[in-house]
Automatic annotation (TrEMBL):
One of its GO terms (cellular component) is membrane. The gene is TMEM145. Keywords: Glycoprotein, Membrane, Transmembrane, Transmembrane helix. It comes from Stegastes partitus (bicolor damselfish). InterPro entries: GPR180-like_N, GPR180/TMEM145, GPR180/TMEM145_TM. It is a multi-pass membrane protein. Residues 551-562 have a biased composition (Gly residues). Residues 198-418 form the GPR180/TMEM145 transmembrane domain. It is found in: Membrane. This is Transmembrane protein 145. Residues 50-169 form the GPR180-like N-terminal domain. GO terms for biological process: G protein-coupled receptor signaling pathway; response to pheromone. Its main location: membrane.
């Protein structure tokens, strides 16, 4: 149950239900079960709160400079009077000076506030603007926030010197009335619009990759690494779709569905891991210079990806269990986050070594590997650099929206670069594949199997693969390219006289010794005037002109005699 509560957003309606019984109403009544187990369908459910402490943190929100608004309703028994709402902001003399400071008591934590700035709301009838009425104290009111810049505000409860806190409450924190800003903290502005934009772009990238895959399949060049790229792009689209649905629901009611956000993050991580594995495989030459990875290489790669996946899982658990909502933290600002950055650098070293080895054995693949290595070197360093900048260089009140845009931009850069360098076009000099998928099985099952069969023959990418028809050419792998040889017909047509023909345009069959060099042709004999042509020889009834070669008018040719 506590794990379920942690999945709910803590900014709009913090669910801090710690009581088992309440003097007001039983916690397990149907009314409160509705609020506890179906909060995703309510804009501001009532939250029951009980604590033996006299100062507790409720929630935080980043308000705009002029449009921030807090509307609240607090209700507690008069016997528990009197409790206060404390409003801290992110100045070093305010919230950082009191949060997680066990050496300070409740009075000292209240002392840093400025009552003249309306930072203390007494939930009593003595405070004119509290909105409280006698009996069960039910306080309904609101507060507007104005500051010189967007600020984080932290809301706490206190009852110094008393016997603890007990109340039920609901709060609504907003920024203006626009659909795109009302329920969003200022550090979340633009995330929904950014996710929608990247969803459209990534959908186009995925559809374009499917079109390219269709062309590659027709030429039997659709290799495993390209399928991995399509998988990464498709999972990225699903991740953005879940994020857009989550933020859309959040914009409507200020609550959203936390499960959708978690699922979107998981899919985003899966897309990243598949793409990273594809880059390492391509660096090692898989489907480019070799048909398969060696056994030792497969074991190392499996161990590395397993460690990377486990580290990602630890990061999710750490973020859910140990991240303090009272502090503005970034996912990579944790031991698991630093571990992921270290694994990213290890992957880059491995990637560099693999590419250099592939180029050493296949220098003709430079048109592919040089731009491939250059562009993805930037990608490997972009993630750790982004994490360091986010932790130390971006203001906390703008961190989440900026990091979200940068992270999606880095992923889009990686996918578009791969889509460009693998496009199946005759003008693409960087295309990596030259061995057809149907030929890989022949290589692996050849008599020279084993290590030698893993490597492809040396062959640069030929543009002719995209100029002819889509039928596979199985002789291309095993043929030896040489200069074209002139045929006998071409030799005779260029060096010999026109072959004599009869009146029916049939080639006269003659015998010739082709092993000797043909003598120069005799001078042409001038035609003699004749009254009529000689009669044609009689045609044998049982033998047709079986051995004669026929051609169109004016064409050269040479006959053979059986």
């Amino acid at each position: 149950f506590l794990t379920f509560l942690k999945l709910l957003p803590a900014r709009i309606i913090p669910v801090l239900t710690l009581c088992l019984l309440s003097p007001l109403q039983p916690c397990l009544s149907p009314h409160h079960l509705l609020f506890l187990f179906f909060p995703l369908f309510l804009a501001a459910p009532i939250t029951l709160f009980t604590s033996w402490e006299d100062w507790v943190f409720l929630t935080r929100f980043c308000f705009l400079t002029d449009f921030g608004r807090l509307d609240f309703r607090f209700r507690y028994p008069k016997s528990r009077c009197c409790q206060n709402i404390l409003l801290y902001f992110d100045d070093s003399s305010q919230w950082p000076a009191v949060y997680k400071r066990p050496e300070k008591n409740c009075y000292q934590k209240e002392a840093v506030l400025r009552p003249e700035n309306n930072q203390v709301i007494n939930l009593t009838t003595r405070y004119t603007w509290s909105g409280c009425v006698v009996r069960v104290l039910s306080c309904v009111g609101g507060r507007s926030f104005r500051s010189v810049r967007e600020r984080w505000w932290y809301i706490a409860l206190s009852k110094c010197g008393g016997d603890g806190l007990q109340l039920e409450y609901e709060m609504k924190l907003t920024n203006g009335q626009s659909f795109w800003t009302q329920h969003f903290s200022a550090d979340e502005f633009g995330i929904l619009e950014t996710d929608i934009t990247f969803l459209v772009i990534f959908s186009m990238v995925f559809l374009l990759s499917c079109y390219f895959a269709y062309n590659l399949k027709g030429r039997q060049l659709l290799h495993t690494t390209y399928k991995m790229f399509m998988t990464a792009a498709g999972v990225e689209v699903l991740s953005l779709l879940f994020h857009c649905v989550y933020w859309g629901l959040y914009a409507r009611d200020g609550v959203g569905n936390g499960s959708l956000k978690i699922l979107g993050k998981l899919l985003f991580s899966v897309s990243f891991l598949v793409f990273l594995l594809m880059l390492i495989l391509l660096g090692k030459g898989f489907t480019v210079t070799r048909a398969r990875i060696s056994h030792s290489g497969s074991v190392k790669l499996s161990i590395y990806m397993t460690v990377y996946t486990i580290t990602y899982v630890i990061l999710f658990i750490y973020e859910a269990e140990f991240f303090d909502p009272g502090e503005v933290l970034y996912a990579y600002d944790s031991p698991a986050g630093y571990g992921l950055m270290g694994l990213q650098l290890v992957a880059y070293v491995w990637f560099c070594y693999a590419v250099l080895v592939s180029l050493k054995h296949y220098p003709e693949k430079q048109p592919f590997y040089v731009p491939f290595f250059t562009t993805y070197t930037l990608w490997f360093f972009a993630v750790p650099v982004m994490a360091l900048i986010a932790n130390f260089g971006i203001p906390r009140w703008a961190r989440e929206k900026i990091v979200n845009g940068i992270q999606l931009g880095i992923h889009l850069y990686a996918h578009i670069v791969f889509l460009v360098i693998t496009r199946p076009s005759a003008a693409n000099k960087n295309f990596p594949y030259h061995v057809r998928t149907s030929q890989i099985g022949i290589l692996l099952s050849s008599p020279k199997g084993g290590e030698g069969a893993e490597s492809f023959p040396h062959h640069a990418y030929g543009n002719s693969s995209f100029l002819g028809d889509s039928q596979p050419n199985f002789t291309e792998l095993f043929s030896i390219q040489s200069d074209p040889v002139k045929t006998v017909e071409e030799t005779v047509a260029r060096k010999g006289p026109e072959v004599p023909r009869n009146s029916e345009q049939k080639i006269i069959t003659t015998a010739a010794d082709l092993t000797s060099i043909l003598p120069p042709p005799p001078p042409p004999i001038p035609p003699r005037p004749a009254a009529r042509s000689p009669p044609l020889p009689p045609r044998l009834p049982s033998f047709t002109e079986y051995f004669s070669m026929q051609s169109g008018g004016g064409g050269g040719g040479l006959g053979t005699k059986a």
